[in-house]
Automatic annotation (TrEMBL):
Bilayer-spanning residue ranges: 5-22, 28-45, 57-79, 146-167, 220-248
InterPro entries from the UniProt entry: STSV1_Orf64
Organism: Leptospira weilii str. Ecochallenge
Pfam family, one: DUF2079
Keyword annotations from UniProtKB, A to Z: Membrane, Transmembrane, Transmembrane helix
Domain of life: Bacteria
Name assigned to this protein: Membrane protein, PF09852 family
């Protein structure tokens, strides 16, 4: 099933970029409201075109998702490149994480002097985050400075099609799945998560992978995703156990999967 691209043009061309780069405070909030009001107007124009036998403009949801995922990834590379040319990265943990990953490439896992005076000070003493190793290939491929940021925005961008795919596996319609994915990708929380240039960007990605494994009842997907997911933050196991407690008695079809998650 295809969707009319005409009524989505204001959302894609104006709303998402403004929300993504500027936010919704002040005058930009009024601009965003006006842009959203354009969608029903264009929808009425489209219906009139149908009555006059004009061919409708249609596009697959997959193309829209791919377009915005590429936009997020490309913008992230430019953002990281610009930040590297300034002192802006000093406000984040970017330097600390990069200085930990570089020795890891040489086989000195998690060693960094950024969080301790000892020669073999360990990053895990500050954050129990072995899952950060998922970002290691990117400094190898693209260099230690820019590679970490590329990895951050790569994993951020693929959460968008993953969210769409997960909603579709839950029997959510294409229209609602597309809207939910685009609203997530254009939200200020998504923007802040990515542009903090922090390993926590892996949390939504691995959470979605685990949920997809549970939904499809694929034990290997669930187990691998959980291993990396629980290795991102120390407190994630508490939240996951709380969700599992609720869903063990309610989700009868996936009763065993949620028991496994809780254990």
């Amino acid at each position: 099933m295809s969707l009319s691209v005409l009524s989505l043009l204001p959302f894609f061309i104006f709303y998402l970029p403004i929300q993504y780069w500027i936010g919704s405070k002040g005058i930009s909030g009024l601009i965003l409201t006006g842009i959203l009001l354009c969608a029903p107007i264009l929808f009425r124009i489209q219906k009139r075109w149908k009555k006059e036998s004009f061919p409708p403009l249609i596009v697959s949801p997959g193309i829209l998702i791919s377009y915005w995922s590429l936009f997020v990834f490309t913008e992230g590379i430019f953002y990281t490149t610009t930040a590297l040319d300034s002192f802006f990265l000093g406000d984040f943990d970017y330097t600390a994480q990069t200085r930990m990953i570089v020795p890891t490439i040489d086989g000195k896992f998690f060693q960094t002097q950024y969080y301790g005076p000892n020669e073999n000070a360990n990053f895990l003493s500050h954050h129990m985050t072995p899952g950060i190793l998922l970002l290691t290939p990117f400094p190898i491929l693209f260099g230690s400075e820019l590679g970490f940021g590329i990895g951050i925005f790569f994993f951020a961008s693929i959460t968008i099609p993953l969210l769409y795919y997960y909603l579709r596996t839950c029997s959510v319609s294409k229209e609602l799945s597309l809207c939910a994915s685009l609203l997530w990708s254009g939200s200020s929380s998504f923007y802040r998560l990515n542009h903090s240039l922090h390993f926590e960007v892996l949390v939504p990605l691995l959470c979605l992978c685990a949920l997809i494994g549970i939904q499809r009842q694929k034990f290997w997907i669930t187990s691998i995703s959980l291993c990396f997911f629980l290795g991102i933050k120390e407190d994630l196991s508490i939240y996951l156990a709380a969700i599992a407690i609720v869903l063990i008695p309610t989700d009868k079809k996936r009763h065993k999967e949620w028991i496994f998650v809780f254990i």
